[in-house]
Amino acid sequence: MAAPKTLDKPIEKTLGESLRERGVSRRGFLKFCAATASMMALPPTLVPTIAAALEQAKRPSVIWLSFQECTACTESLTRSHAPTVEDLILDIISLDYHHTLQAAAGDAAELARTQAMRDHAGEYLVLVDGSIPGPDANPGFSTVAGHSNYDMLMETVEHAAAVIAIGTCAAFGGLPGANPNPTGAKSVMELVKDKPIVNVPGCPPIPKVITGVLVHYLTFGTLPELDAYGRPLAFYGQSIHDRCYRRPFYDKGDFAKSFDDKGARLGWCLYQLGCKGPSTYNACATMRWNDGTSWPVEAGHPCLGCSEPRFWDAGGFYNPVSVPISASGMNVLGAAAAGAVVGGAVAGLSKVQTKKAEAHRQPVTVEELEQKL
Amino acid sequence: MPSLNHIPVTLDTRPLGDRTAAGCLARRHGNATPILYELRHALDRLITTGETTKIDLAAMPFGPGDLDHLLSVLGTGEVQASVDALGPTRIQETGIAGVWLVDYLSSEAQRLALHLEIATVPEILRPQPHDLDDAIATLDARLSAEASASSLTS
Amino acid sequence: MSGSMEFLLWTKGPMFDIAIAIFAIGLLVRIAEIFMLGRAKNFAEPRAGEWKPGLTTVVTRSFADPGTFKRAPFNVVVGWIWHVGFLIALLLFLPHIELIKSLTGLSWPALPNPLISLVTAVTLIALIATLVHRMTHPVKRRISTLEDYLVWTVVFAVVLTGWLAYTRMVNPYPLILGMHILAAEIMLIILPFTKLTHIFTAVIARWYNGAAYGRKGVQS
């Protein structure tokens, strides 16, 4: 096989320039900015700021690494249904390596990655989907081109500007990391300590949220404001429950009790059916899925809490939020029975002691008592 | 495990508009009302200070039927406009003067954003400032082209 | 990792198992001991039955007699308000019913959430009033022990965190819900070993009293 040709370094162009080159008018650009604001979950009042920033924006190089994952995150991204804007963005970011989407294979593919790392050292973004068998785990659980996931991640992020963990596996360990975690799966933030990390969890994440985070970086050149779990506040700042259109039913006490009862048909609150909306932070309730068509709760299914850490281990999907994870009535009964036995033993012991004391009781005189005082 | 026959399948013959994804009757969830009050405040600001407001309807936690209810309360006004830039953008005046529904569509007619704009004229209809800056130069160029063309013919 | 969600899962998982085990073992030790030790054997001829007067007293002792009310109206009224409020919030709030259902299989209808919220707010105010009263009333202040203040703090923490979680006034929600569950678990753990045991023993003690009166043929 001939050695693959070294790729040329792309010419840097601002977004304003490349849009004008495509014949996009200023009204078109305004519309693009309005759609971008909507995608970033920013209010329309920021459109002029976005326009000014986008005019100067440069296309970042993006390396997408896929580890222990199911490709749903990529499927989600490529199923985002706003082609004009997303196409522009995907043209505008330079997706230099993505082993599911790229045409190149084998050495050429790996060369594209190392080339992008060299050409854009300190500037490129690394997107990761899937969890990574940690440094202590058997590296054979997951390899790409003969490299362990761990080695490839650490090598690639070394000169990255930032790392974006796409999906719950990359962000929190996800399904591979669920109990008993046979592959020793770890999240990106457990392994990468010296780079800014943005977590975009979800199983999969909403496509507009993935592009929204990229567009934020593209627009402002900075990472968005994050919560304690490294999630962008613009998308993960409010819980499903607080933005749920069924919330008034929760407040009124109208609950669906099964999937086919009157309450379910009337679209009442799904708390009793195990909705994790109260403790889940994501944008489903407003951004929705499938091009804004609907989202799980609107389709009548409780939220599973897929954008939260350890959601696979958080108890049954159909148990309400207030129900403990593992304790059962039998455990409590067992503990109570043990308690009754111990209590009986204690009572028996004190009875024996009382009897013994009675048997050996000696009369005491006043003089003896006074001596003791 | 119950057999497949135990799953109650019913045929919903209602017209599509009356149904939602959950198969239940479309109903209001009361989430349009706060937007209507927000509109009222925005109109007040437009009248007193001239400040315009845009509301992103995609960012609202609407339930099935809420958006339809909001638009039916606002009604339809006299003006309709369309902008052809990066796909069509449809502008519809609502029955409330100064409140516009701006629907940004892609060239495949998929919605990119849906705004309510409270302004005398929606921003996308107005000439863009940079275009205005270039307007005289563009016209001058065309005038001189016209002049040279007419001098050639005379 | 130590985020709010992990904290919540810890309180809902291992910590709940530990708390419920200590509670069940501790409480049954106390109750089994009480029943097995019983009362000193009474050799006198019973004048009347024990069961009916015993059960009657369980109910009648819940209401203060006019004398007690006159002497300590604050204790009676405020005590009643927060006890009833606490029980309503504990037993008629849907998430709590779901928890009980998951453990016992028993369930009953819930009250609407805003009503529970109102009751809880009243309970909180009543609880604060009891603390102020305890700290300002000269006799109460002198007879109060560290245990009294500990029990008050734990009960107040349970109600306060529950109300904050319901009203979602603390962000992130998993943190405040976890704090509420943890507070309830601390309450479960100390329950068998403090005066909180009265939740279960008050009924037994009243029955013993009523039964003893009944046996003697005295009005209970």
Query: What is the N-to-C order of secondary-structure elements of chain A (H for helix, E for strand)?
Result: HHHEHHEHEEEEHEHEHEHHHHHHHH
End-to-end gap of chain A? 104 Å
CATH architecture of the domain at 60-235 in chain A: 3-Layer(aba) Sandwich
**What's the helix count of chain A?**
17
**Which two chains touch over the largest interface?**
A-C, 52 and 46 residues
Q: What structural class should be given to the helix and strand makeup of chain A?
A: alpha/beta
Shape of chain A: elongated
CATH superfamily assignment of the domain at 60-235 in chain A? NADH:ubiquinone oxidoreductase-like, 20kDa subunit
- Give the strand content of chain C: under 5%
Percent helix of chain A, as a range, is 40-55%
Report the major sheet of chain A.
5 strands, parallel
- Number of helices in the DSSP assignment of chain C: 11
What general outline of chain C do the C-alpha atoms trace?
A: globular
**Uncertain residue segments of chain C:** none
- CATH fold call of chain C: Fumarate Reductase Cytochrome B subunit
CA radius of gyration of chain C? 20 Å
Mean pLDDT of chain C: 90
How would you briefly describe this protein structure?
The complex is a heterotrimer of chains A (373), B (154) and C (220). Chain A has 17 helices and 9 strands.
Please outline the helices and strands:
The complex is a heterotrimer of chains A (373), B (154) and C (220).
Chain A: H1 15-21, H2 26-39, H3 47-56, E1 61-66, H4 72-78, H5 83-92, E2 94-98, H6 106-119, E3 125-129, E4 132-133, E5 143-144, E6 147-148, H7 149-157, E7 162-166, H8 167-172, E8 185-186, H9 188-191, E9 197-200, H10 207-220, H11 233-236, H12 240-243, H13 247-252, H14 262-265, H15 284-287, H16 329-359, H17 366-372
Parallel strand pairs in A: 1-2, 1-3, 3-7, 7-9
Antiparallel strand pairs in A: 4-8, 5-6
Helix pairs in contact in A: 2-3, 4-10
Chain B: H1 33-49, E1 53-56, H2 66-74, E2 76-84, E3 88-94, E4 99-105, E5 111-118, H3 129-153
Antiparallel strand pairs in B: 1-5, 2-3, 3-4, 4-5
Chain C: H1 4-12, H2 14-37, H3 51-60, H4 66-71, H5 73-92, H6 94-104, H7 113-136, H8 138-143, H9 146-167, H10 173-190, H11 198-216
